[in-house]
């Protein structure tokens, strides 16, 4: 992904700091501006008097330096990465933790008794991240076609569809592996799932790059990021695994790092190391989801970070560049990702509210019909989908996948809808498809 060019920030050095000069500016400037924004030099220099810009920057950097927490990760020059949490970010972090600790039903404002319904209502969202992550990396397949492929479990027709299917399997792999400790082998497994059957950049699934001809462009023909030497990859990724597996609970005297912050740092560092010829972004985002699920923030199964990153790729790139051009300050990337997570939660809430309203409308219609009390939740939800798409079909596999039920139950539910003449059976070889009649609404009435 191309990244826009950013001017490197003047380096702050505590040894050579001019304390009399700082005394003039410290009372006037904080870690953030008046709106709570954690500004990089590239933006700050245009918001202050030009002849005082560098002094103001050093005053801000001094205050950030005091609050910085170093992490046990280093760039190629041996300089550590670090971050701080200003007040505006503390508020965001609190909001994320509070929301992520709930369930989909709580997010939607549903009663606890409706949690099972909420789970079913978000079934299609699990596919959203797989699709958006691939589109962020350049896949051209439309969302409608991609969802149909995943729902029908059909084989991909081209490399773009293959990328989307791989991403779907990758998220499943992250969920399945969330109880494991992070290892270099697990990172390789994530990458293999992400890139299997693709040929972009001559990628070899599950294999590190064996050359240093991979770099990230700045959007203006220059190089924004040159990853570490390929010979260092195993050693540097082992250090990343050690960081991921270290105890940062804050108990028994150990350092505290909020799990969501740690997950974001893992995301950044995989992108920084860029250990593969292709698929680094997908693997990095899978690593983020893996760590959130590892810490039992199950709500992250249902939000799509990539969808929002795809809508603002420039800002995503800037958040990387701000860190790399300001003494490895991870705060920029963490702050941006917290914004994306909060927006993703808001979209999840909106989606659930819309789907719940749609479902309740169908339930109200069914209650007036002779079928109302005879159908269970899954059957009612199938009818809800059916009323929106006359002529579409359902398969047993799709119902099993969407609702997490056994084959026999799915087949039984569909056949009961056929018995009520709300779906029409059609043979497709040895399988049966269940087609939505064009006059379904009239049949319900």
UniProtKB/TrEMBL annotation:
<feature type="binding site">
    <location>
        <begin position="216"/>
        <end position="225"/>
    </location>
    <ligand>
        <name>ATP</name>
    </ligand>
</feature>
<dbReference type="GO" id="GO:0005524">
    <property type="term" value="F:ATP binding"/>
</dbReference>
<feature type="active site">
    <location>
        <position position="274"/>
    </location>
</feature>
<keyword id="KW-0067">ATP-binding</keyword>
<feature type="domain" description="Fido">
    <location>
        <begin position="182"/>
        <end position="339"/>
    </location>
</feature>
<dbReference type="InterPro" id="IPR036597">
    <property type="entry name" value="Fido-like_dom_sf"/>
</dbReference>
<protein>
    <submittedName>
        <fullName>Fic family protein</fullName>
    </submittedName>
</protein>
<dbReference type="Pfam" id="PF02661">
    <property type="entry name" value="Fic"/>
</dbReference>
<feature type="binding site">
    <location>
        <begin position="278"/>
        <end position="285"/>
    </location>
    <ligand>
        <name>ATP</name>
    </ligand>
</feature>
<dbReference type="InterPro" id="IPR040198">
    <property type="entry name" value="Fido_containing"/>
</dbReference>
<dbReference type="InterPro" id="IPR003812">
    <property type="entry name" value="Fido"/>
</dbReference>
<keyword id="KW-0547">Nucleotide-binding</keyword>
């Amino acid at each position: 992904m191309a990244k826009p060019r950013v001017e490197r920030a003047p380096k702050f050095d505590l040894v050579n700091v001019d304390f009399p000069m700082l005394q003039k500016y410290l009372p006037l400037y904080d870690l953030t501006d008046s709106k709570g924004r954690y500004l990089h030099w590239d933006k700050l220099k245009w918001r202050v008097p030009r002849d005082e810009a560098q002094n103001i920057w050093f005053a801000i950097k001094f205050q950030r330096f005091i609050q910085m927490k170093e992490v046990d990760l280093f760039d190629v020059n041996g300089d550590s990465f670090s971050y701080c949490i200003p007040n505006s970010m503390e508020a965001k972090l609190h909001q994320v933790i509070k929301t992520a600790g709930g369930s989909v039903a709580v997010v939607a404002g549903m009663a606890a008794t409706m949690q099972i319904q909420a789970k079913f209502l978000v079934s299609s969202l699990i596919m959203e991240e797989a699709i958006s992550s691939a589109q962020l990396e350049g896949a051209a397949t439309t969302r409608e076609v991609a969802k149909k492929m995943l729902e029908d479990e059909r084989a991909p027709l081209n490399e773009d569809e293959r990328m989307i299917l791989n991403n779907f399997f990758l998220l499943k792999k992250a969920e399945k592996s969330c109880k494991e400790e992070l290892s270099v082998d697990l990172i390789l497994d994530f990458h293999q799932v992400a890139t299997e059957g693709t040929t972009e950049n001559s990628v070899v699934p599950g294999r590190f790059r064996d050359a240093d001809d991979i770099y990230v462009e700045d959007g203006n023909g220059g190089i924004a990021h040159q990853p570490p030497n390929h010979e260092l990859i195993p050693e540097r990724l082992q250090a990343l695994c050690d960081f991921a597996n270290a105890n940062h609970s804050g108990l028994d005297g150990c350092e505290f790092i909020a799990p969501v912050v740690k997950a974001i740092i893992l995301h950044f560092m995989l992108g920084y190391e860029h250990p593969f010829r292709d698929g680094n972004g997908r693997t990095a985002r899978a690593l983020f989801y893996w760590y959130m699920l590892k810490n039992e923030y199950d709500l992250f199964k249902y939000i799509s970070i990539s969808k929002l990153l795809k809508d603002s790729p420039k800002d995503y790139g800037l958040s990387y560049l701000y860190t790399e051009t300001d003494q490895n300050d991870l705060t920029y990337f963490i702050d941006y990702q917290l914004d994306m997570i909060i927006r993703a939660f808001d979209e999840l809430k909106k989606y659930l509210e819309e789907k719940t309203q749609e479902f309740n409308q169908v339930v109200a219609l069914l209650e007036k019909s002779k079928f109302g009390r005879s159908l269970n939740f899954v059957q009612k939800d199938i009818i809800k989908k059916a009323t929106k798409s006359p002529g579409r079909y359902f398969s047993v596999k799709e119902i099993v996948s969407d609702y997490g039920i056994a084959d026999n139950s799915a087949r039984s539910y569909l056949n009961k809808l056929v018995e009520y003449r709300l779906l029409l059976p059609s043979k497709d070889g040895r399988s049966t498809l269940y087609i939505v009649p064009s006059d379904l609404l009239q049949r319900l009435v």
